[in-house]
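Q: Convert this sequence to structure tokens.
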Amino acid sequence: MLLKINLLAVLAFVSSLVLAVPVTDQRLDNASAEAESANWLSHGRSYREMRYSPLQKINRSNVDQLGLGWFFETDDASGLQATPIVADGVMYFSAAWNVVYALDAKSGEMLWKYDPHVPRETSFKYCCGVVNRGVAIWQDKIFMGTLDGRLIAINADSGLLEWQVQTTDPAKPYSITGAPRIVNGKVVIGNGGSEYGVRGYVTAYSAETGEQVWRFYTIPGNPADGFENEQMALAAKTWTGEWWKMGGGGTVWDSIAFDPELNLLYLGVGNGAPHNQQIRSPGGGDNLFLTSIVALNPDTGEYVWHYQQVNGESWDYTATQQMVLLDIDWHGQPRKVIMQAPKAGFFYIIDRITGELLSAEPYVKVSWASEYNMETGRPIENIEARYLDGEKVLVFPTGLGGHNWHSMSYSLQTGLMYIPAMDFGTEFQTEKDFVYSPRHWNVGYSTAGPPGAHLLNQALIKNVPKGFLLAWDPIKQQEAWRVPYPTLGNGGTLATAGQLVFQGNNEGQFFAYDAVNGEQLWSAPVQNGIMAAPVAYSVDGEQYVSVLVGRGGGLSMILGIEHDVANINGRVVTYKLGGEKKLPAIAKPQPVPEPPAKMPVSEQQLQQGMALYNKYCARCHGVNAVSDGSVPDLRYLPAVWHQNFNQVVLHGMMEKAGMPRFDDVLNDETVEYVHAYLIARAHEQKELREQSGWWVELQSWVYTKFAQLLALLMAEA
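A:
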């Protein structure tokens, strides 16, 4: 077997020799130049992170002639979030469980595959699925951060491991899902895991050897241990209580940007942990550097400046969303700026030399703050939104944000930013008798729905919250146009010089829109939801548009939306003018298993089971036991899993397959309540299926109208 693997690696190496051109620092610096127009060399295509392609052979006049050029199937259905890297005719991308593929970008033929063998039993550390948002390239190496905290360098030609380094403490629940960035010959990587009890930091390693160069912590640790630098000592003064015992959060789990001209590195810092500031920092305070953009010297890791968007955040708001670097005319003066549309719902324009706030206007519905004081740079908060008195408070946006990690793009032609946006609010209420659980989510507010919430859930999700493509004018700070979608969590966007915007949605469609007015010009069914952002590239003068297809990940799994399209194994789909390939037919779904008899529990115990499920299980299997399909829907379990329910949930029978054990928070009695709740949900679904069509339609109509009325009342309130 070893001989076979080595032989395959040698063949891949030989076949790729003609394609291998080192991606130097100079090439990365000049990724926006005409000479690199055929490539997609970094996560946002260039250091400016605009996700704008200068290619225009595919344009408004001929986009309707797009057809499938090739597709490539992965071997896992857990969801794909990565942006592919395309360099000199070779495509590199990461899939579920950190498996990396190299493909011929013209034909889709696999050149090599690398599996870092992430231990499946560590899945309990991963808040949002076994996903990864991409790799980086430098010289002859491909870099990736793994779910279990390693930074790996792979030979770009052979697919063989060059080096690896453990970037996190394996004993702590850190994870990595974000793409690395290459900066001045260094690989910069952050991490995630705030809710599980970790302290955020970013590390730079030598791209050549993997040796650590510097590390910058984003929030202070235990004062008794001393502080790493002056900034941590100052930041500690903005915290109260014993935050370090619960980690504190502040992880840089996604966005990092670099300006080679200014030689500044920008970190997007995440939320606090627990989310609820009353628990995390009971005396209040700004809690630096949560929800901040922090600028560092990339060579030394030394602090330069910061801007905090949400002081003392308490809603899971983050500044980890994509940062776009632009040079604009602002009030008659040239300014070098960062533009960002993060979770909090405001579109920020910040001077990237000084960190000065230039503008902050809401791009979606916002209720936690009314506006920003431009003299202080601080938000003018609605104090009721902090849910301080223990009552439920409806807050917009929800912790999932007005815009999450799904990438936005900027067109140099239209001057518009294209944002996968959401109008979505939720109720916050301080969790009673909160107890910190090191292996589990620690948010600090109630996540259990009221009795019967599952009956209304689908109507609320599908008819009240809104997912849409938003074209935003950053200079006028207003909406230019929007395209609505049926559900939330739609894919990232790509803008091209062909005056097009490409985006996939969660319901299995890939679209091309007129970048000027939002008119839909083309679409194609892809048989699965799209979360990832497309890329454009060319090989031998022919332009391609490619996107990873596969629903999954935190937002998709948690929301609990049933989809009309199945969740099949992830794939890459690539389109070109005149393409004639066809996707394979989808196999017929398996019959729904007959649920076992309802368990003899009281209504109170059933409600306790629902609360425990939503606290510990919903982050993967969906709120109110409605799955997006990327993991098993627990309402439709075959009999064998009901028979072994305790073994799986309490004793880790399926740990090696990625299903965690919960014997640290559940016992034989409470797991019975969870099991009873799931069986009850299975019977509810069975009854719905057995009802006649007119009754289901009437029920759906009633739920929809009630949800619309509820939304109206909540909005007026």
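Residues 69 and 364 are 37 Å apart (CA to CA).
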